Amino acid sequence: MAQGLPLLNEVVLEDLPQFKGRDGNEIVLTLSSLQKLKVVNCPGLTSFIISAKIQLFDSSYNLSSLKFLSLMELTELRVIWNGSIQAVNFQNLTELNVGDCISLRYIFSPTIARNLPRLSLLRIFDCEELEQIIENDQTSSQHHLQPICFPSLAEVSVRDCENLKYLFPVTFSHGGILKLKTISLEKVSKLEKVFEGDEANVSKDEEKVIHLPQLTDLKLSELPNLMSFSPVSYHFVFPSLEDLKVEGCPNITTRFSVDSKQSVHAKTQASQSDDGTIVEESAAAQETTWPAGSDISWWVF
Questions:
Q1: Which H/E stretch holds residue 219?
Q2: 155-185, pLDDT tens digit by residue?
């Protein structure tokens, strides 16, 4: 059928309770012009496979045109990409929305995550079993593999995903998300860190300074188990931040501050004293520091 629809660029599958796909548990799409795919309330789907297998027979069929992917209310969905994922081509995917997929454990496999150069918008909500954005890379010790990064990512938003413990590995911040403009995390009750890393191998005496040059909006809301923004000894700088909101994060140890140039800083240290008040400093390096665990609502006038 795909061969008879060479110009089809949008597919919407909605409210199909009996729809299971080929072989009872999969859908294979090989539409060469497909740009937008939306799947809503198809509870019979357990494995959603987007495959370019047909390239083995005809190289003109692939999914390199896909730009928008939305997966909603797929209650039995456990894996988005499965099977022979080495052949999958998502070079032009720019927007991914995943919501109400209550059985989903992770969003990306490491292989898929390494091949999303244009992904700009990532929104995830109401995925209660979600534990990781990117599945643990079992081959990370193989140094020939390229590092995982999202070079075009501008916005990431996660809401009501109660089992997620961190957003991204801290290695992402080492040049892998330089275009990131918005981070919004709300009601992620088990989240412990925004950026996670191996603190056992980090020297507490050596500060690692990380810049996110384009970040303009940072929202951390109702995260009762959030302990820190990053691993110990990391110092994040947001020179372009315009709106900072931290609320309902009583256990966070990271201190946020604003310097005389209106750059926002987020420092995570091994031990910090807390006098419970906002500190105003006249020195050029710091002008305002908020105590750890306090609610913050700050914006550029």
A1: strand 217-221
A2: 999 999 999 999 999 998 988 999 999 999 9
